[in-house]
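Record type: monomer structure entry
Structure origin: computed from sequence
Chain ID: A
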Amino acid sequence: MASIKAFDQQFAYGSTKAAVSHFMKIIAVSYANEGIRANAISQGLFLYITYNLLLF
């Protein structure tokens, strides 16, 4: 979520997470014709009721 939605005072975390996500997409597209797949695990936060009240 941090890679697609902006949060206050989270510029380093959000931009780094977006960069890793985009990097993996580029790797996947670049090597797809060779049968190589690329995956990344991107941890996110769990939206509990308290987070819903704070974020939305």
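Annotation 1: The chain is about 50% helix and 0% strand.
Annotation 2: The chain has a mean pLDDT of 77.
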